[in-house]
Write a structure and sequence with these properties.
This protein is mainly α and 162 residues long. 85% of the residues lie in helices and 0% in strands. The protein has seven helices and no strands. The longest helix is centred in the first third of the chain and has 34 residues.
């Protein structure tokens, strides 16, 4: 990749990464008190990761999401496919934040399960649209999709066990 193209895309990527990290940070702040008390009292499946793992995983995923969105955005917001892709991205990012609020804030694993299933659908649509604009951007969302699939199974099991 030539450096001129990379320099052109860098501001979009930096802004997108910052937006994703802020959304993730705000979601974690809003739900932190439930994480430290209510969540600890829940029955969890044997495959539940240790609590310390969630922050580094989500930070990495938010960075990858931001790079991906910035890469698409840098193709030009005037393009219909770019707009459509970014609208899908924005909607899935809102669902991502909503999941934390519903699961931890409202302490409702059932309703959170419905939100995370909608989130999975939106991630798949986002990947589809990102792929039309940039295969690299679509590929960068695969770890996010995989983690949210795992999180959906975990959410289901927590709901089932409680």
């Amino acid at each position: 990749m030539d450096t001129a193209l990379l320099k052109k895309r860098l501001p979009n990527v930096i802004i997108s990464v910052a937006v994703c990290l802020v959304i993730g940070f705000v979601s974690s702040v809003v739900t932190q008190s439930s994480v430290n008390d209510w969540y600890l009292t829940l029955n969890k499946p044997s495959f539940n990761p240790p609590n310390w793992l969630f922050a580094p995983v989500w930070t990495t995923l938010y960075v990858l999401m931001g790079i991906s969105a910035g890469w698409v955005w840098a193709k030009g917001f005037h393009h219909k496919w770019v707009k459509t892709a970014l609208y899908h991205f924005g909607f899935q990012l809102l669902l991502n934040a909503l999941w934390s609020i519903v699961f931890f804030g409202l302490k409702s694993p059932f309703w959170a399960l419905l939100v995370i299933l909608a989130l999975l659908v939106m991630i798949i649509f986002t990947i589809k649209w990102f792929k039309l604009v940039s295969k690299v951007a679509a590929f960068l969302l695969i770890p996010y999709l995989a983690w949210v699939c795992f999180a959906a199974v975990l959410n289901y099991k927590i709901w089932e066990l409680n």
